[in-house]
Structures are given as C-alpha cells and as structure tokens.
C-alpha cells in the first residue's frame, strides 16, 4: 500500500503534480485572489475570517470534490460570493520530469479551471498557453490517478473539520477512520465489497438459469426411477419370501432374549432386599442419637434465651441514660454560650455610656452665654409657629395612619388568602402525588416500599443472581400482610418504620453484592439486614411478651417466610411494640401501668411513647410519615384522597373570589393614602423649616444649659454602675454553669464506660447463645435428613423392591408360554436349519423385520400396478430428453466454474488485503516509534480491524514506574500534542502524494507545543520530499528560515 523511499540529505524529486499557483475569483469570501506556492514548505497565515481555509476548499473543488465532501457547503453554488453570479477556481499544476502527465499535450504546466454558476459547474484542463485540452470528468480522473492526488484522503488535505475530527479527537474509532482512509485500506475494502456483491448477483443468475431446466431434470430422474423400479420388482418378490421366514423365527429368538433378561432382572431385584434393610437399620440408630442430642440442646437454648433477653433490656437502659446525659451536657453548653454573649453585650453598653458622659462634659465647656431675654422672645414665637404646624401635621398623620391601618389590614387579609391558596395548592399537589403512588402500588405492591428504585434493584438482583449465596429477601414490607383488617395499619407502619424497606441477606458477602447492585440501580437509601436464612422460625415464650390486652406490632403481622418473621423480632423488636388507640391510653400503658417487656407504645394518631429508667419520652406525630402501604386494598384510600382534592378545589375557588374583592378595596385605599401623603409632605416641609429655625435659636440659648449636663451626667454614671453590678451577677451565674457542665460531662463519661463495660461483660453470653442456637439448628437439620432417609428406604422396600420381584416372576412364566407357541408356528413355515444356513437374522430385531416386510409388500403391490409401459419404451424416452438438456448443463457448469475461480481469486485478494493491513499496522507502529524516539519517548499503536478502533500507548522517559499511558488524555498538553503529531507523521510516511496541506493543525496547542510541532513538521517536510502547505492563524515567527521555506501573510478581513 505504500512504497519505500530512501532520503539522503535533501530529498531529490521531479516535483511533478505540485501546485504552482492558485487563482480564485468570486469564490467564498475572495473577490480575486492569486497565490503562488513554493515547491517545498509553504506557510499561509492570517487572521480568522481572512479566507485561509477557502484556499484548501478551492483545491478540493478543483480536483473534483463535491460540495458536501468539503464539509463547507451542501451545494456548489453556495461557494459563489454573495452578490456575484459565478465563481472560478484555477490551479496550476507542475508537469515536469519523468512522472509528468502527457507532456506532449499539456507541456510543463497543467491548468485546471473549474467554473461554478447558480445552475451548473464545469471543469476544463488547459495547457501552459491556456488552450483548452480536455473537459471530461474521465480526463480529470485520469490526471488525479496519475499523480496519486486524493483530496479526500486526510493525509493529502486536512481541513479544519478533519483536523478536529481526527487529530484532536480522543475517540479511538475516529483515529481508526483516519488511519483506514489515509492508507487507502478504505478504498480497497470498498472495492472488494463491490466485487463480492457482483459475484453474488452472478451466482444468483446462474441459479436462476439452472432452475429453468430443473423440471426437465426431474422428468429424467422420474424415468430413471421407473426403469430401476421395474427391474427391482422381481427382486422385491424374492426378498418378501425370505423376510417371511426370518420373521417367523425372529419371534422365537426374541422371546429367548426376553427370558434371559427377565432371569437377570429377578436375580438383581432379590439382591436389593438385604441392602435396603441394612440402610433402614443404620438410619434408625442414627435418629435415636440425634433425638437425644436435640432434647439436651433445646433445654440449653431455652435457658440462654432468658439470660440474653435480660442482657438486652439492661443494655438498652444504659444507652438511653447515656443519651440523656449527653443531651443535658449539650443544653448546658448552649446556655453557657448565650450567657457569655449577654455579658459581652453589657460590657459594650458600659463602654458606650462612658464615651457619652465624656462627650456631654466637653460640649458643656464649649457653650457660651448670649442675650437671654432676646433669645427667649424669639424662641417663644418660633415655638408657637412650630406647635400650630405640628398640630396640623399630627392631624394629617392620624388620618394617614388610619388609612394605612385599613390598607395594612386588607393587605394582611390578602396575604392570608394568598397563603391559604398556596397551602391548598401544595396540599392538592401532595394528595395528587399520593394518589399516583397508590395507583402505582395497585399495579405492583413492591413499589410501596421504595418506588421505581426498588424495581430497578430487583431487576439488578435477578441479573446478578449468581453473585449471591442465596437470593436476597426484600423489601420486607412486600413479604408481610396485616391480619384483622387495615384498622391498625398506621400504627404498625410507624412501629416497623424503615425496616419495611429493608432487604435481608444471609451473610456479609451477599450484603456487599447487594450494595453493588443498588449502586448500579441508583437506589442506595434502604437498610440491609444480615440474618442467616437457615435459622428456624423463632418461638417466643409468653413470659417474654408484654402482659397486656393491647395488640403488639408482631401480633398484627403475618409472614409465610420464617426469615422475615425472625428479622421483625430480632431487629425490629416488633413483639415488644404495643399499639393503642389514643394518646391517653398510650400514656397509661407506657408510663402508669408499668407493664413488663414493653419497649415502645404507638398510637393510631401517630404518637410514640417510651420510658428509659426514670425518663419518660413522648415523641410527636411525624409530618411526612407515609402510611397505608400495608393496606390490603388501595381503592378506599384513593376515593378518600379524590374527595379531599374536590373539597380543596372548592376552597381555592372561594379564596380566589375573596381575593378579587379585596384587590378592589386595596386600590381604593391606596388612592386615598397617596393623596393624604402628598398633603402631609407639604406640611412636613413647612414644619421642618420652622423647627430648624427654632433649633438654631435654642442652640444659642445657653443660660440654663449648666444644669442639664450635670443632671444628664449623673444619670449616665448611675446607669453605668447598675450595668457593672449586673455583669458581676452574670459572671457568677456563668461559673455555676461551668460547674454543672463538668458534672454533666463526668456523668455522660461514666454512663458510656458503664455501657461499654456491660457490653464487653455480656459478649460471652451472647456468643454462647448464638453458638447454641446454631448447634440446635444443625441437629434439627440432621434429624430431618435422617427421618427422610429412613422413610425413603422403607418406601423403596415396600413400593418398589417386593412388588417388582412378584411382577417379574409373573412376566417370566408368560414368556415361556409365548416361546412354545412361536416355535410351533415357525416350524410350519420352514425348518430352523434353513435359517441357520442363511446366517441367522443379520442382527435385525423382530420389529425391524416386520416393518421391512410390510413395506416390501406394499411396494411390491404398488410397483406391480404402477407402470404399464415396457422397459424399452422408457429407455428411448429417457435418451431423447437427455440430449435436449445436456448442452445447457455443460454451459451452466462452465459458468459456475468461472464464478468459482473468481470467488477463489477474490478470497485470495481478501487474504492479501488482510496481510497488507497487518503489515501496515506493524509499519505504523514502527514509524510512530521512530518519530517518538527523537524525543526519547517510546510508544505503541494498537489497531483492531474487527472493532474498527485505533488506540495509542505512550511511555514517557521520566516515568520511573515504567507504566504505560494508554489514554493520551492522561498526558500533559505538550506530550499529547507531540504524540498526536508523531501519529500523523507516521501516516504521512506511509502514503504518497505530490503535495499535502494541513489547516489549523495547531489550533489546540500552547506556545511550547506549537514550537516543537512546527520544528518537527518542517524537518519532516524537507526530508519527505512532497510539497507542503500549512495554514494557521497563529504566529510562525519561530519557524526557521530557509530557501525551501516560504511564508505568506493573508490580508486582514474587511470590517
């Protein structure tokens, strides 16, 4: 797929097929553009919008690409500049050297000109003088194939879109497309697929022609069959006679075999009697020992149950006392924090009062005396004027306040109505949600205990069922039902709580597997209970139950699953949760009557009550408590909720009607209030003017000022003294609080240590109980198995062994009678010596001989009556028909042989294609490593033709762990840019083209990466030998200068 090249120093080549000049007229954003290119490396830079990418688009259009293939337009006419009627693209191609194309016609330059109008487009090939030489598409295709110019190959022309799609994409499938297309494997694969389709069509045509002569072939087969059948009629008659003799004696021999088998069967059955009896005796002995062990262990477990129940009760009391002490300590600490804040605030007030005393004394010193009589007269006049205006202002304010109160009252009413509407709407939405949930529960009850999440979890459990030792049980609520109706459903659901949503597993390994399933199902908020499924159903003694007539949560629940029942007892403690009807009765049961074994009391209206030691606790009703999930039918709840929704809608309509009435009143009050405010503001301005004059006069009056500061200062000093005394009292209280906090902390610490010591001291008793319980379960399991084995062997002896012996002996006697009768009949047909001379029965059974005889008799009768023609007439007819189709058969056979040869050739080509693909994959890795090695990096390219993916692995020299980066996104920006560039250069090494172009290949690189990439590209381009065109909007001043490097700057776009 790629030819090998050797470069020494600067590449030597003829340059045939390179681009000398590109001229554009009315094309995209260019009115007129002419650009000349060097034979080696060309850089074209410019700002965004200057038309750089249009140059590559023009090259693609000139060499025959369609508009969609450029990814810049859907139709060619869209390339015409706005306001123009045509566009022209002209490309001058160098045509010199040994690889030139028809130099005697075109000369040393070929001009390709493509003209585009609104309705048509045409391509013309011209010679050096501009004379038209060809205009057919075939001529352009021949030129393109001669120079090996494939503008759709991303290694020849890489546009902006292809650069983003292939080079800057982290997708392995995009990289594979780039590699498959760049190495022309895509083109060869498409060609092989096309040939395979044509071969299939040819095979179908030959099959159709052969089907046309198949009726004649069938007629020949029928004639041949008739001839053969007539020949075999006599042979069949002879075979019938022989089969009759064999069949007669086969009955005798068959009975002999049955008699022999029956004797063996009777002997085998009699040998089973002592074996079964021995197993029954050993099982009885084992069962007696197990009964004795079971009785002893059961007594031991009963004793341990009483001990562990008392241990649990004492442990719960210690924990509750510790929690209360800890809460008391937290409350005292909060009170201490509040007292500290109050003391600090009082100290700040004292400091402010002291500053105020100092300011008053300073002002008193600055005051000066003035004319007393003149100032008093002026002050009296101003006071009279201020009083009159103040009286008018007070009257206006009273009126304004009255209106404001009316307005505020109406606004409060409006706010209340809005709150009522919002409350009703929220309540309606909540009820609608509950109705939807109940309807969902009707279709699947499991959703009541976790919604859609629990359904997803159950599906994941089924999908990963092999990961569990035993299938999980859950949710618990789906495995229990209420007894005696739904009356106690709210209290039961509150008592059991979150345990209704729980799943039960048999060990910690299954718990881990369940958590993984929950994570995949996105359902994580549910309890997981680990409980051995092998434990039998618990039997709770009466003395361990609450001694009351009120029901317990366990007594109102039923479950067929013993594991669920055990979890309700061990984890939920449902047997000690008492249910009552109302609050008063609950307090009596929980606190007053002092009933033993009562853990908690729940009321129908949602209250929870319990006592721990001397502390009595009543928890209020939970606002968001979900009830009704255990009800047998949801129809009544749905009807009740729908009735509530109807009433709520009526309340909302009434509230909206009142809201419209109040809105009218509000508008009236606002209009009146605005008028009053305007009048008040006018009077206030007049009042402020007069009051300022009065204040100015009073400031100058300092005669009586000497008395005021002294009295004010004394009052402030007294207030400071009182505040300091109060601070001292608060500090004393704070010291007492600290002592109480220390005492509470010591009490909590002591209770916690007591709880831990008690737990450690009772650990042995709990473990002993668990061990005894496990041993009891194991003994019971062994007893069950032993009883089952004993019953099994007794049934085998009674129902199978003895009846089968009796039945076998009866069958033996019957067979002996059948043998005598069959021998007599066979001797009448022929003597036994004749059958022995023929070689017995050739291994055939009686049924086979009988079936064969019947079949031959039917065939003999059928063949004898079937054919009326003579065998000679049939042979003549056969020869005539055979001559008619023989030539066609030979022709079609030749066709099929040629198609087979083509198929073999195609298979060979496909193998060569696969071998070349494997070699290209190897060469790509080799080239990639060669380019990476220049920077001391190594790498590997994995190409999967089956999955159509290409992944890059890079190992950096500084990586001391010697780990390989299999995702280039794990590299730094510069490392990723350089490895991507090496991948592209490796593909360029494997493809041939007279020129190559890359647009915005460095758009995602930083300055350092761009410098490294540009230097590498320039070195590769100079060594590789093709003409290169690089288009970039970035600065290329860091690119080294040389006679083979040409840089051009596009004009800035017009604004």
Automatic annotation (TrEMBL):
It comes from the Eukaryota. It is found in: Chromosome; Nucleus. InterPro entries: P-loop_NTPase, RecF/RecN/SMC_N, SMC_hinge_sf. Keywords: ATP-binding, Chromosome, Coiled coil, DNA damage, DNA recombination, DNA repair, Nucleotide-binding, Nucleus. Residues 19-1047 form the RecF/RecN/SMC N-terminal domain. Residues 192-233, 329-434, 638-679, 720-866 form a coiled coil. Pfam families: SMC_N. Belongs to the SMC family. SMC6 subfamily. This is RecF/RecN/SMC N-terminal domain-containing protein. It comes from Hibiscus sabdariffa. The lineage of its organism: Eukaryota, Viridiplantae, Streptophyta, Embryophyta, Tracheophyta.
């Amino acid at each position: 797929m790629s030819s090998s090249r050797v470069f020494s120093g600067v590449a030597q080549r003829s340059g045939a097929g390179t681009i000398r000049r590109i001229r554009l007229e009315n094309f995209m954003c260019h009115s007129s553009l002419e650009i000349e290119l060097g034979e080696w490396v060309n850089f074209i830079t410019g700002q965004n919008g200057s038309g750089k990418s249009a140059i590559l688009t023009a090259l693609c259009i000139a060499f025959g690409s369609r508009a969609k293939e450029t990814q810049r337009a859907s139709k060619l006419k869209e390339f015409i500049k706005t306001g123009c009627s045509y566009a022209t693209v002209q490309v001058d191609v160098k045509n010199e050297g040994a690889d030139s194309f028809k130099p005697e016609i075109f000369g040393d330059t070929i001009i390709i000109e493509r003209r585009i109008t609104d309705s048509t487009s045409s391509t013309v090939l011209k010679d050096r003088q501009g004379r038209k030489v060809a205009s057919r598409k075939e001529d352009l295709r021949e030129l393109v194939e001669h120079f090996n110019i494939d503008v759709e190959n991303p290694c020849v022309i890489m546009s902006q879109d292809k650069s983003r799609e292939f080079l800057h994409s982290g997708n392995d499938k995009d990289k594979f497309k780039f590699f498959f297309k760049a190495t022309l494997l895509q083109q060869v694969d498409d060609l092989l697929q096309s040939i395979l389709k044509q071969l299939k069509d040819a095979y179908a045509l030959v099959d159709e022609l052969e089907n046309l002569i198949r009726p004649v072939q069938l007629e020949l087969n029928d004639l041949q069959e008739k001839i053969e059948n007539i020949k075999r009629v006599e042979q069949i008659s002879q075979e019938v006679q022989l089969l009759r003799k064999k069949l007669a004696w086969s009955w005798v021999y068959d009975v002999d075999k049955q008699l022999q088998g029956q004797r063996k069967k009777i002997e085998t059955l009699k040998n089973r009697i002592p074996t079964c009896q021995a197993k029954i005796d050993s099982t009885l002995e084992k069962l007696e020992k197990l009964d004795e062990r079971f009785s002893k262990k059961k007594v031991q477990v009963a004793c341990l149950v009483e001990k562990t129940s008392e241990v649990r009760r004492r442990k719960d009391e210690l924990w509750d006392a510790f929690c209360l002490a800890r809460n008391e300590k937290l409350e005292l600490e909060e009170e201490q924090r509040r007292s500290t804040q109050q003391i600090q605030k009082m100290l700040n007030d004292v400091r402010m009062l002291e500053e105020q005393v100092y300011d008053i004394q300073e002002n008193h010193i600055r005051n000066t005396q003035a004319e007393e009589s003149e100032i008093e007269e002026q002050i009296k006049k101003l006071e009279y004027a201020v009083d009159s205006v103040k009286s008018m202002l007070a009257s206006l304010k009273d009126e304004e306040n009255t209106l404001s109160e009316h307005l505020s009252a109406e606004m409060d009413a409006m706010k209340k109505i809005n709150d009522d509407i919002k409350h009703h709407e929220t309540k309606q939405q909540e009820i609608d949600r509950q109705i939807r949930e109940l309807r969902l529960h009707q279709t699947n009850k499991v959703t009541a205990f976790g919604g859609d999440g629990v359904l997803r979890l159950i599906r994941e459990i089924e999908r990963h069922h092999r990961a569990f030792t035993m299938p999980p049980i859950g949710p618990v609520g789906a495995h229990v039902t209420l007894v005696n109706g739904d009356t106690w459903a709210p209290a039961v659901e509150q008592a059991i709580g979150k345990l209704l949503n729980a799943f039960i597993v048999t060990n910690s390994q299954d718990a881990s597997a369940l958590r993984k399933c929950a994570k995949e199902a996105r359902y994580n908020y549910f309890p997981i209970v680990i409980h051995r499924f092998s434990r039998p159903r618990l039997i709770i003694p009466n003395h361990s139950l609450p001694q009351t007539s009120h029901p317990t949560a366990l007594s109102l629940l039923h479950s067929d699953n013993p594991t669920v029942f055990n979890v309700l007892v061990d984890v939920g403690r449902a047997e000690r949760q008492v249910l009552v009807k109302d609050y008063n009765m609950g307090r009596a049961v929980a606190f007053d009557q002092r009933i033993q074994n009562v853990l908690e009391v729940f009321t129908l209206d949602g209250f929870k009550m319990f006592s721990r030691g001397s502390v009595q606790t009543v928890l209020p009703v939970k606002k968001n408590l979900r009830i009704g999930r255990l009800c047998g039918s949801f129809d009544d709840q749905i009807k009740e909720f729908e009735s509530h929704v109807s009433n709520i809608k009526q309340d909302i309509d009434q509230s909206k009607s009142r809201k419209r009435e109040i809105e009218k009143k509000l508008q009236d009050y606002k209009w009146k209030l605005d008028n009053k405010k305007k009048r008040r503001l006018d009077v206030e301005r007049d009042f402020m003017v007069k009051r300022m004059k009065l204040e100015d006069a009073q400031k100058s009056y300092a005669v009586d000022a000497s008395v005021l500061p002294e009295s004010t200062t004394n009052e402030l000093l007294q207030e400071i003294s009182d505040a300091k005394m109060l601070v001292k009292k608060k500090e004393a209280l704070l010291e007492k609080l600290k002592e109480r906090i220390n005492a509470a902390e010591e009490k909590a610490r002591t209770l916690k240590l007591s709880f831990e010591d008690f737990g450690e001291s009772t650990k042995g008793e709990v473990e002993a109980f668990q061990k005894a319980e496990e041993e009891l379960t194991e003994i019971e399991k062994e007893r069950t198995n032993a009883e089952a084995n004993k019953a099994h062997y007794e049934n085998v002896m009674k129902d199978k062994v003895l009846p089968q012996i009796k039945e076998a002996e009866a069958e033996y006697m019957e067979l002996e009678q059948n043998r005598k009768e069959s021998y007599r009949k066979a001797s009448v047909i022929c003597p036994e010596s004749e059958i022995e001379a023929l070689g017995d029965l050739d291994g055939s059974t009686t049924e086979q001989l009988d079936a064969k005889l019947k079949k031959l008799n039917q065939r003999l009768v059928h063949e004898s009556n079937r054919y009326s023609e003579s065998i000679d007439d049939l042979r003549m007819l056969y020869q005539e028909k055979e001559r008619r189709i023989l030539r066609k058969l030979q022709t079609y056979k030749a066709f099929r042989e040629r198609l087979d040869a083509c198929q073999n050739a195609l298979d060979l080509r496909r193998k060569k294609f696969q071998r070349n693909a494997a070699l290209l994959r190897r060469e790509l890795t080799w080239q990639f490593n060669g380019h990476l090695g220049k920077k001391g990096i190594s790498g590997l390219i994995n190409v999967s033709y089956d999955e159509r993916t290409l992944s890059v692995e890079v190992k950096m020299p500084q990586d001391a762990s010697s780990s390989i980066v299999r995702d280039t996104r794990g590299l730094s920006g510069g490392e990723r840019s350089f490895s991507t560039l090496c991948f592209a250069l490796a593909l360029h090494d494997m493809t041939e083209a007279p020129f190559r172009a890359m647009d915005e290949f460095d758009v995602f690189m930083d300055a350092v990466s761009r410098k490294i990439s540009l230097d590498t590209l320039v070195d590769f381009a100079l060594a590789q030998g093709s003409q290169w065109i690089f288009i970039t909007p970035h600065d290329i001043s860091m690119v080294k200068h040389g006679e083979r490097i040409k840089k051009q700057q596009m004009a800035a776009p017009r604004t």
